[in-house]
Every structure is written in structure tokens, then in C-alpha cells.
């Protein structure tokens, strides 16, 4: 594949991108605009009530981000006119049929008539999201995107971004294979997507009839999602609903009604940019970043996990490059990769090519925050000690009992003896313990993860890119390029300190 074939594919093309305010979507939009200014148009679908609120979100949540500073410097005074020409906002809702575009039939018809490629990035990534929300976005949202795709007369490829962790708590070498409709991870039969939707509606109706408050409904929906996920072998609502979204993709592939390739890209844990548009851009507190933030601020004294386990992370710009290459390659029905990769599924991961251990994260975190301590609101440097590592749940439960549960019990007795004088302190400590235990329950599967992600299909994409001399230039996504020690010390942690700690 020559470099020109990727850029040529994007040139004069119209691409619909859902979930436009998300982390990866922003990097994708910036990348396309910077490397191929001759793209015809990017339809950006984002959740908004109307065009005015969509424009507000575009400015505040996308264009005004530091991520776009390189493009702004490149275009100078022409930046705003360039953005106005290339970006077309699409206020909508992926969890509704026709993506909620009925209010603007003219815009909807333009999407039908002009779209060459669709990249579905819309999702909720919260592990314990409300089940109704997660099912709507991560599962049925996929169906609605595919339904819309069938009406796009010029469409050449549909690319759906999932997650490598649809495998649940899989062990060993995890393959780039599809998930069949209704097949659970643990062998439990009866998984039916429409039955899940009916269950959600019935539960919501019951709660409303009982006069449940908004907060009570939220908690009930969160609990329902975790319960349903665990029933069928997934550890949380996020990966369960993403897996069901992939089941819909596979079902549509078998039907063959769309007539164009449906590609699935599965990144692992996405981290800050490795190189472009500049190193270290980050946004939002992600899985490992939440631990880094807590540790740097002196709030994380112990760490639960297997230090010998591999944690699979991949920088955001590498994921975006893989998306662009996969899109361009699979849009060409005559390309060797498109014709030899039946499932069109790509793991964008690092655990096979360049594994990173939990012990690496412990070490670089200590080294970074020892050399460059966080300055708290009082202007004092926060001193960190090396995290105590609890290697199993038994030691964690023992630690929690001695450190927190015994004092809580003592506080409860004192509170009773002194006529509830310590009630506020007791409730606050109890609430914090409950939060910690829930977080541990959510993250435990990844802290002790025993799998690595096969990436044979993705390697085919990299080989194609290398043949054209693009691997180390414009569309790099080989994790072997990364020196993890250097990346975390000099790129990722400085990035989250700059963009997330504040």
C-alpha cells in the first residue's frame, strides 16, 4: 500500500463520525483535517437538542481544546473558515432510530446521499453505567447506525470501534474473532438482546409506579446492568453491552444486506497521544489514570493487583492511525488484506508485541512523583511513598479490615455512646469504604487480567503500511515503537498532570 492510497481515499470524501465529542473522535477529526485538508466534509454527530447547542459543544468540547493548536498554527487566520467549510454538525442521538435526525429531513437526506464512510465512535465507557443508557448507546446504537448505513447510497465502508475487553475475563491468547448472537461467555443460555431491552423498560416502569426518585432509579439501573452482565459471564455493564453491539454487527454481516465491509476495531486501554499532533495530550480520567491521579495526590497508599500481570495500553494517536488504515484498506474490495481477512476485526493492542507489566506502572509512578511532586492547593509538595501492593483479595480484605473496618466499628460504638455525636464522621467514613469496595469490584478483573490480545489481522495492516513507507511517518501504530519507561515518564504522566490533574 502506498501512502497516497490512504490519503487518496480520504481526499474529496465525506465521512460521518458519531460520538464526535469523545476522546478518540477528537484525535481522529484533528488528524484527518491536518493530514488531508482536501477531505470534502466531516459530518459530526453529537448529542444536542438543536443546532445552536451543537455549535456550542463543537467550540467548547472540540475546537477550543489544546489538541487543535498545531492545526491552528498551521492555518493561522484561515482556521475558522476552514473549520466552517469542512465540519458539518449533526445534532442527534445514537440511541434513537435514524439517530434522532427526523427534525432535519434535509440534513438527513444529505447524509444519505453524500456519505462515503461511517466511523462509529459513540459509546459510554463507564464500567457501571445505567443499564438503560449503556444498552441504548453501546448495543442498540450499533443497530441504528447500521440501519442508517443501509440508506447511504455512496457508502464504501462502515467501521465500528469496540473494545478488546469484550472478551470479559478471558485468559491466554485472545483471538480477533467475532461474537455470535446470543452466545454468552460462561455458557449460560438465554441471552436475548430484545428481552434485555424489554426487561429494562419493565424495570423502569415498575420504579416509576413506585414513585422512585431519580437517584433511586439511577442506582437500580446501575445494579441491573452489573447483575445482567455477570449472569452471562462479563464483569461489567460496559463490556457486556459492547459485546452485544458486536453481536449485532456479526448478525448483519451474516445477512449481507449492507453490501459493504463492516470493520471492527478493538483498542485496549487508550492512553495519551504518543506523537501526534504532539505527545501527551489527554482528556478524562481513564482506568490507569485514575490510579495515577490518586497516587500523585497522596491518596493512594496501597494498590491491588498482580505485579506480574500484563496491562494492555495503547496511545490514542496509534488507535486513530489504525482506524484510518483499516478504513482505507477495507473500503477497497480488491486489496489483498480486505479479501483475506474474513472477519475484518482488528485488535489495536500492545500485550503481544510490546508487553507492559503492572510493576512498570508502580515503578514509573514512584519515580515521576518523587522527582516532580504534585503541589497541593496550599502550595505544599505532596510526598509519595512506594505503593504497597496487595497481590490478592484475601490480603486486600485483611488490609481493609484492620485499616478501616475496625476503626469504623469503634466509631459506631462511640457514636452510640455519645448520642450520635460522631454521626457525620461515621457516615462519611462508611460512604468512602463503600465507594472503595465498589471500585475494587469494578476494576478487579483488569488488575488480575491473565490474557494477551492476538493481533494477526492488525499486523497485516501494519505490513501494508510499512510496504508504503508510512509506518514511522504518518500512519504509525506499531506498539514496538514505544519505550514504555520513556513514554510514561516523559509523555503520559506529564500529560495527565497537565490536562487532568487541574
TrEMBL record:
NADP is among the record's keywords: yes
Pfam families according to UniProt: NAD_binding_4, Sterile
EC number: 1.2.1.84
SUPFAM superfamilies: NAD(P)-binding Rossmann-fold domains
Function text: Catalyzes the reduction of fatty acyl-CoA to fatty alcohols.
Membrane-spanning parts: none
Name under which the protein is recorded: Fatty acyl-CoA reductase
Domain Fatty acyl-CoA reductase C-terminal: 404-502
Reactions listed under catalytic activity: a long-chain fatty acyl-CoA + 2 NADPH + 2 H(+) = a long-chain primary fatty alcohol + 2 NADP(+) + CoA
PANTHER family according to UniProt: FATTY ACYL-COA REDUCTASE 3 (PTHR11011:SF99), MALE STERILITY PROTEIN 2-RELATED (PTHR11011)
Keyword tags: Lipid biosynthesis, Lipid metabolism, NADP, Oxidoreductase
Thioester reductase (TE) domain boundaries: 17-323
Family, similarity comment: Belongs to the fatty acyl-CoA reductase family.
Superkingdom of origin: Eukaryota
Amino acid at each position: 500500500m502506498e501512502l497516497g492510497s490512504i490519503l487518496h481515499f480520504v481526499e474529496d470524501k465525506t465521512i460521518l463520525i458519531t460520538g464526535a465529542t469523545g476522546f478518540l473522535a477528537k484525535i481522529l477529526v484533528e488528524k484527518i483535517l491536518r493530514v488531508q485538508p482536501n477531505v470534502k466534509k466531516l459530518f459530526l454527530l453529537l448529542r444536542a437538542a438543536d443546532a445552536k447547542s451543537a455549535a456550542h459543544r463543537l467550540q467548547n468540547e472540540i475546537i477550543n481544546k489544546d489538541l487543535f493548536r498545531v492545526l491552528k498554527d498551521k492555518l493561522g487566520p484561515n482556521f475558522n473558515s476552514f473549520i466552517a467549510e469542512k465540519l458539518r454538525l449533526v445534532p442527534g442521538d445514537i440511541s434513537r432510530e435514524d439517530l434522532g435526525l427526523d427534525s432535519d429531513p434535509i440534513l438527513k437526506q444529505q447524509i444519505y446521499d453524500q456519505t462515503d464512510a461511517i466511523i462509529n465512535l459513540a459509546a459510554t465507557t463507564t464500567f457501571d453505567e445505567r443499564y438503560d443508557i449503556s444498552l441504548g448507546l453501546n448495543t442498540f446504537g450499533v443497530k441504528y447506525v447500521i440501519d442508517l448505513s443501509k440508506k447511504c447510497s455512496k457508502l464504501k465502508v462502515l467501521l465500528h470501534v469496540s473494545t478488546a475487553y469484550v472478551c470479559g475475563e478471558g485468559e491466554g491468547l485472545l483471538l480477533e474473532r467475532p461474537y455470535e448472537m446470543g452466545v454468552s461467555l460462561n455458557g449460560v443460555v438465554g441471552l436475548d438482546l430484545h428481552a434485555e431491552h424489554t426487561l429494562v423498560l419493565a424495570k423502569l416502569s415498575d420504579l416509576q409506579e413506585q414513585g422512585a426518585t431519580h437517584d433511586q432509579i439511577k442506582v437500580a439501573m446501575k445494579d441491573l446492568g452489573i447483575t445482567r452482565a455477570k449472569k452471562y459471564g462479563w464483569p461489567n455493564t460496559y463490556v457486556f453491552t459492547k459485546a452485544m453491539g458486536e453481536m449485532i454487527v456479526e448478525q448483519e454481516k451474516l445477512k449481507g444486506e449492507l453490501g459493504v465491509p463492516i470493520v471492527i476495531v478493538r483498542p485496549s486501554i487508550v492512553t495519551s497521544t504518543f506523537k501526534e499532533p504532539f505527545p501527551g495530550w489527554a482528556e478524562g480520567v481513564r482506568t490507569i489514570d485514575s490510579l495515577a491521579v490518586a497516587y500523585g495526590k497522596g491518596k493512594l497508599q496501597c494498590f491491588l493487583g498482580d505485579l506480574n500481570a500484563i496491562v494492555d495500553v495503547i496511545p490514542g494517536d496509534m488507535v486513530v492511525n489504525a482506524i484510518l488504515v483499516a478504513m482505507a484498506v477495507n473500503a477497497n474490495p480488491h486489496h489483498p488484506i480486505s479479501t483475506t481477512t474474513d472477519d475484518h476485526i482488528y485488535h489495536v493492542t500492545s500485550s503481544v508485541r510490546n508487553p507492559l507489566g503492572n510493576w512498570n506502572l508502580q515503578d514509573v509512578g514512584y519515580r515521576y512523583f518523587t522527582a516532580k511532586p504534585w503541589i497541593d492547593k496550599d502550595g505544599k509538595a505532596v510526598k509519595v511513598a512506594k505503593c504497597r501492593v496487595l497481590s490478592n483479595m484475601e490480603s486486600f480484605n485483611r488490609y481493609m479490615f484492620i485499616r478501616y473496618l475496625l476503626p469504623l466499628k469503634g466509631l459506631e460504638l462511640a457514636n452510640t455512646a455519645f448520642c450520635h455525636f460522631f454521626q457525620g464522621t461515621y457516615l462519611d467514613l462508611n460512604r468512602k469504604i463503600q465507594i472503595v469496595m465498589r471500585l475494587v469490584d469494578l476494576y478487579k478483573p483488569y488488575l488480575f487480567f491473565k490474557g494477551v490480545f492476538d493481533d494477526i489481522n492488525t499486523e497485516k495492516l501494519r505490513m501494508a503500511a510499512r510496504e508504503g513507507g508510512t509506518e514511522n511517518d504518518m500512519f504509525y501504530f506499531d506498539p514496538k515503537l514505544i519505550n514504555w519507561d520513556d513514554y510514561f515518564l516523559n509523555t503520559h504522566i506529564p500529560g495527565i498532570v497537565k490536562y487532568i490533574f487541574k
